[in-house]
Automatic annotation (TrEMBL):
Protein name listed in UniProt: Amino acid ABC transporter ATP-binding protein, PAAT family
InterPro entries per UniProt: AAA+_ATPase (IPR003593), ABC_ATPase_HisP-typ (IPR030679), ABC_transporter-like_ATP-bd (IPR003439), ABC_transporter-like_CS (IPR017871), MetN_ABC_transporter-like (IPR050086), P-loop_NTPase (IPR027417)
Alphabetically ordered keywords of this record: ATP-binding, Nucleotide-binding, Transport
Family annotation (Pfam families): ABC_tran
One annotated GO molecular function: ATP binding
The organism's place on the tree of life at top rank: Bacteria
PROSITE patterns hit by this protein: ABC_TRANSPORTER_1, ABC_TRANSPORTER_2
Organism: Clostridium gasigenes
């Protein structure tokens, strides 16, 4: 992790009519840092990630990415989403396109990059995750774990500076979870800046530089993994971990 601040969030608020989804979120994310966000379902974790990627409209607060603000009508979101990649729980692969065409689409359409260049990059990444032989397969021919790993490769081919992961193992069978988590661990070792929402507690402790605990749209606690899991500061975090009956 470096000292350079890549993302800075100040006083971020998000409301749906009269319901407060996020309240006074203040956070800095450093280059090369892995930030894991934990908290009960419905506490605002996924909404927060969607705000960072422009999928939710923000009317209060600021988000600074590098040296530019990314809130408002003038933001070129196609460009920003190339630099802030996001992988969802539901894979989001196009069913009528094979693996390599799914990977090529974003870089070629949004970034106007050369097909051969992107294809070479995609094939190298597929090899790294052990799926080089599936580049001509269609999503229906793949397991959930394979589809999720390919969704990660597709995002990486946009050459992002930050990766957002929104509970990407939640829909997977237990035996498929590890293969996806291993890809994320490899990204962490290679210095990728990541913000991860997960319920995989052992993985969170293993991969995180810092843990952010949220409840009811607020950040209740920020600490390193050992401190959080061994001696959480907030009473709400203690209750949360007790429900999980987490043991290291």
């Amino acid at each position: 992790m470096e000292n350079e601040i890549l993302l800075k969030i100040d006083n971020l608020k998000k409301n749906y009519d009269n319901i407060t989804a996020l309240e006074d979120i203040n956070l800095e994310v450093h280059k090369g840092e892995v930030l894991v966000i934990l908290g009960p379902s419905g506490c605002g974790k996924s909404t927060f990630l969607r705000c960072l990627n422009g999928l939710e409209e923000i009317k209060e607060g600021t988000i600074t990415f590098g040296n530019k603000g990314i809130i408002g009508k003038d933001v070129k979101w196609e460009e920003v989403r190339g630099e802030i990649g996001m992988v969802f729980q539901s894979y989001e692969l196009f069913p009528h396109m094979n693996v390599i065409d799914n990977i090529l689409l974003g870089p070629m359409k949004a970034q106007k990059r050369d097909k051969k260049e992107v294809e070479k990059q995609g094939e190298e990444l597929l090899k790294r995750i052990g799926l080089e032989d599936r580049k001509k397969s269609f999503p229906r021919q793949l397991s959930g774990g394979q589809k999720q790993r390919i969704a990660i490769v597709r995002a990486l081919c946009m050459n992002p500076k930050v990766m957002l992961f929104d509970e990407i193992t939640a829909a997977l069978d237990p035996e498929m979870v590890r293969e996806v988590l291993d890809v994320m661990l490899e990204l962490a070792k290679n210095g990728m800046t990541m913000i991860i929402v997960t319920h995989e507690m052992q993985f969170a402790k293993e991969v995180a530089d810092r843990i952010v605990f949220m409840d009811k749209g607020k950040i209740c606690e920020i600490s390193n993994p050992n401190e959080f899991f061994e001696n959480p500061k907030s009473e709400r975090a203690k209750q949360f971990l007790n429900i999980f009956k987490y043991k290291v």
